[in-house]
Amino acid sequence: MEQDPRTHAVIGAAMEVHRIVGPGHLEAVYQECLEIELKLRNIPFISQPRLEIFYKEQKLKKYYVPDFIVYNEVVVEIKAEQSLSKVDEAQLINSLI
User: Fold this and answer.
1) Residue 54 belongs to what domain range?
2) Each residue of 25-79: pLDDT tens digit?
3) For position 86, what pLDDT does the model report?
4) What are phi and psi of 63, to 5 degrees?
5) What is the count of structural domains for the chain?
6) Potential cystine with 68: which of 22, 31, 73, 76 (Cβ 3.0-4.6 Å)?
7) CB environment 27-65: b (16+ within 10 A), e (fewer)
């Protein structure tokens, strides 16, 4: 299967951050480093955008705030854990819907 070049670029940026910074840091550290790396690679992104959530066509008071949206369509969520929890997996699936 062929990978989208934009996805490849974002994964490459994240892997570079992990290679340099290493494991064991808070998500906020990785987020700041990834923001720098995305800028260095000229990858367009929005950091922590507030996205509206709707229920039965009613806008909720709460917002979904992903870590990044890159290329105006790809949601990037940073997780600094040994493995994803069931809650993390559910949040990931909800962000894809």
Assistant:
1) 5-96
2) 999 999 999 999 999 999 999 999 999 999 999 999 999 999 999 999 989 999 8
3) 80
4) -120, 155
5) 1
6) 76
7) eeebbebbbebbeeeebebeeeeeeeeeeeeeeeeeeee
Residues 6+ apart with CB under 8 A from 80: 25, 26, 27, 29, 30
Residue 24: is it exposed, middle or buried by C-beta count within 10 angstroms (0-12/13-18/19+)?
Answer: exposed
Nearest C-alpha neighbor of 49 from the set 15, 81, 72: 72
Give the per-residue pLDDT at 4.
87
Residue located via tokens 């699936």: 93
Find out whether 66 and 48 touch, Cβ atoms under 8 Å: yes
Is-above-0.85 flag for pTM? no
Question: In the numeric block, which tokens belong to residue 90?
Answer: 């559910």
